[in-house]
Each structure stands twice: as structure tokens, then as C-alpha cells.
Design brief:
The protein has about 250 residues and is of the alpha/beta class. It folds into 2 domains: about 80 residues, no CATH class; about 130 residues, Rossmann fold, CATH 3.40.50.1970. About 40% of the residues lie in helices and about 15% in strands. It has a 5-stranded parallel sheet with strand order 8-7-9-10-11. The protein has a 4-stranded mixed sheet with strand order 3-4-6-5, with helices on both faces. It starts with a helix and ends in a 5-residue tail after the last helix.
Length: about 250
């Protein structure tokens, strides 16, 4: 439940259009609902300014749909790492849901019309796009303007140089790379924009499913980089949005 819904509820009570008992019934699920197999954090959007995300790996389709059903009226919903059959069920059950099959991702709800700040998301290769999509949808769900630029890895360094001005203009850049993971270091040496680096599991054997790019990013000689976990586009999008909201002063009266 977000702040606007809470304010509207309190205004209805103040006007006499809703009783205190009715308001308490609406609020009784704060801060979470216990479904037995899951405890849903219905308070997260109010507390943190972000929808609760459902990590769907190893959850059954029935469990995923039950969680969405309980959350849908109070919050936007991000479902990550959704199995293909569960994505189809989400779309069948909620035709308005936005489905991103290449990223095993679903968004149920509406993106905020009002945006604040700008994040730019850059991938080294096309194979990194699924992780970028997680970052994009997460940041957009939190009211951030997002621009994506794909396939500008350092094997063609001129591609990076061609987007330097766009990178400089953004509040924050999310740079996503597999293989040797050098792209964040290169970009950090060109601009003063803070960088969130995301290593991906894309690469041949010696990339060790993302360990090599992770270590490259952690050991970067370029300052101004923070590093997410392997393939964790969701956390990168969340962190970018949280930083932008903080520096832009959102929520201050």
C-alpha cells in the first residue's frame, strides 16, 4: 500500500465517508500478510517507495498466482525469475500484466506517470539484456526515467565513446557486463556519473558463470563504482532509484 492510498483512506475517514472500523479493516494487513507458505510485505511500498518483488524461482505457479492475488489491490508487483509456464499463467490471469519473456520477468500494475531523475542502463552485449530488463522495470516501477543502450562492449571501444555524452547527463549509470567484465571500468574512466556495475553469468568457461567479471569489477582501478551480485539486475535498479530519489529530495515536504 502506497502513501497516496493511505492519504486517501484517511481523508475518507475525516469526511465521514468511511468508518474507523472500515479503515482498520483496510489496514489490518500491515505490515504483512501470512499465507502460510509466504509472508507478503504489503508495507514495503509505503516504507521504501518500491513494490514488493516476488522471487519466483522454486515457487509453484499456484503459489505465485496466490501471492499476486493478495498483493494486487494494494501494490504494483514485480515478479522475477518466473518460469515460462508461470509467466503464461500470469498473463492469462491478468491480461494487463507486462510480460518480458526474455528476462523471465513480469510487472503487474501501472508505472508511475510522474518520474524523477534519470538512470541510463548500458550492456556490454546483447546476451546481457535480460539482466538489464530487470534493472529497467524495477527503476521504472519506482518512478525513475530510464534509458537503455545495448551492446556497447569494449571489443568495439568506439561504441562506448559514442554514448559518452548520454552517460554524463544521467544521474546514475547501470553498467552490465559478462565475459571479463571490463566495461564499467572503461566507462568510469570517462565520466563523473556514479556507476552501478552488474556482472552477468554470460561468458565462456573461464568466466566461471560470472565470477570473473565480478572480480574484475570489485578490483577496478576506476573510482566511483559499486558492484552488485552476479545477474542481480533487480537490486541494481532498486539501488539506482533509491539514490536518485535521495539526491533529488523526493518525499520531503
Amino acid at each position: 500500500m502506497d502513501k497516496n492510498k493511505i492519504k486517501k483512506l484517511l481523508e475518507e475517514v475525516k469526511k465521514g465517508n468511511k468508518s474507523i472500523k472500515e479503515a482498520l479493516t483496510t489496514l489490518e494487513n500491515l505490515p504483512f500478510m501470512d499465507l502460510g507458505f509466504a509472508k507478503i510485505d504489503s508495507h514495503r511500498e509505503l516504507r521504501m517507495g518500491a513494490p514488493e518483488a516476488i522471487y519466483c524461482m522454486n515457487k509453484t505457479t499456484s503459489q505465485i498466482i496466490q501471492i499476486i492475488k493478495k498483493m494486487k489491490n494494494d501494490s504494483n508487483i514485480i515478479a522475477t525469475r518466473v518460469p515460462e509456464k508461470s509467466l503464461k499463467k500470469i498473463k492469462d490471469t491478468y491480461p494487463d500484466a507486462k510480460i518480458y519473456p526474455e528476462a523471465n520477468l513480469a510487472f503487474i500494475g501501472k508505472f508511475p506517470k510522474k518520474t524523477i531523475g534519470k538512470a541510463i542502463i548500458v550492456t556490454a552485449g546483447t546476451s546481457d539484456i535480460p539482466i538489464a530488463r530487470e534493472s529497467e522495470v524495477t527503476a521504472k516501477s519506482m518512478g525513475i526515467e530510464v534509458e537503455t543502450i545495448f551492446d556497447v562492449g569494449i571489443s568495439g571501444i568506439h561504441r562506448v565513446l559514442s554514448i559518452r555524452n548520454k552517460l554524463k547527463e544521467a544521474d546514475i549509470a547501470i553498467v552490465i557486463a559478462g565475459m571479463e567484465g571490463a566495461l564499467p571500468s572503461v566507462i568510469a574512466g570517462l565520466i563523473d556519473t556514479p556507476i552501478i556495475a552488474v556482472p552477468t553469468s554470460v561468458g565462456y568457461g573461464a568466466s566461471f558463470k560470472g565470477i570473473s567479471p565480478l572480480l574484475t569489477m570489485l578490483n577496478s582501478c576506476a573510482p566511483g563504482i559499486c558492484v552488485m551480485n552476479i545477474d542481480n539486475g533487480y537490486s541494481a535498479g532498486f539501488f539506482a532509484a533509491a539514490v536518485i530519489k535521495k539526491i533529488r529530495g523526493e518525499g520531503k515536504e
